[in-house]
Design goal:
The protein has a single domain, classed as Methane Monooxygenase Hydroxylase, Chain G, domain 1. Helices cover 85% and strands 0% of the residues. The chain has 6 helices and no strands.
C-alpha cells in the first residue's frame, strides 16, 4: 500500500469522524429541547455533562487535521477538504455549546412551567436541525445547490426569532412579573437562532470546498 493510499484513507476517516460529531451535536440539540418541553431536569443535566464529549471530539479532529497537513503536505482539493473539516468541526462544537446553553436555561427555570405553550420555539429547533442535516448531506455529496438552499433558509429562522421576540416583549410590557420567565425563553430562541447561523457557516464552507473560492463564503457569524 502506497503512502498516498494511506493518506486518502486517513482523509476518508477524517470526514467520517466529522459526520459522527455532527450526529452527536444534532442529538444534543434535540435532547436539550425535549428536556425543556418535558421539564426534565435530569435530562438537561445529562446534556450539560455530555458537552465535554463534543469538545473532546472537536479537539481530536483538529489534531488529526494538523497532523495530516504537517506530514502529508496536501495540495489543492485535498487541502480544501482538511481546511473545511477544521472549520466545520469548530462550527459543530459551537452548536453543541448552544445545546448545552439551552439545557442550562432549562435548569435555571427549574420546575416552573414556561410562560406560554412552546410553539414557535420548537419550530425553530426543528427547522434548525433540518438545516444542519442538509448542510452535512451537502458536505458528503459536495452539493452546492443544497448548500445554497441552506444559506437561504436561515432567513426563515430569523423571521421566527423576530416573531418570538415581539411576542415575549409584549408579555413583559403588559406584566412585569413575566419578565424572568420571558427572558429564559428569549435566551432559548436566541440560542436556536445562533444554531441556524452556525449551520449556515457550514453550508458556506461546503461551497468553498467545492469551488475553492473564498469569495463565495460570507463573513462568519459570531
Amino acid at each position: 500500500m502506497t503512502p498516498r493510499t494511506d493518506f486518502h484513507k486517513d482523509l476518508t476517516r477524517l470526514q467520517d469522524e466529522l459526520l459522527l460529531l455532527g450526529g452527536m451535536v444534532e442529538k444534543a440539540v434535540a435532547r436539550a429541547m425535549d428536556a425543556l418541553r418535558r421539564r426534565d431536569l435530569d435530562a438537561s443535566r445529562q446534556v450539560v455533562r455530555e458537552d465535554d464529549i463534543v469538545d473532546l471530539k472537536r479537539f481530536d479532529l483538529e489534531e488529526r487535521c494538523i497532523d495530516l497537513i504537517a506530514t502529508q503536505q496536501p495540495m489543492a482539493g485535498d487541502l480544501r477538504v482538511i481546511i473545511t473539516v477544521l472549520h466545520v468541526a469548530v462550527e459543530l462544537e459551537r452548536i453543541g455549546d448552544y445545546a448545552e446553553g439551552i439545557a442550562k436555561i432549562s435548569l435555571m427555570m427549574g420546575n416552573d412551567p414556561p410562560l406560554k405553550p412552546l410553539i414557535d420555539i420548537p419550530r425553530m429547533a426543528e427547522q434548525s436541525a433540518d438545516m444542519l442535516r442538509r448542510s452535512l448531506d451537502a458536505f458528503v455529496n459536495r452539493d452546492i445547490v443544497a448548500a445554497t438552499t441552506v444559506c437561504k433558509d436561515d432567513d426563515k429562522i430569523d423571521d421566527l426569532y423576530d416573531q418570538v421576540y415581539r411576542e415575549l416583549l409584549t408579555y413583559m410590557l403588559e406584566d412585569p412579573e413575566t419578565i424572568r420567565r420571558a427572558t429564559y425563553l428569549l435566551w432559548v430562541a436566541h440560542d436556536l437562532e445562533r444554531i441556524a447561523d452556525r449551520t449556515t457557516n457550514i453550508a458556506e464552507r461546503v461551497i468553498f470546498l467545492v469551488t475553492g473560492r473564498l469569495a463565495d463564503v460570507s463573513v462568519s457569524r459570531y
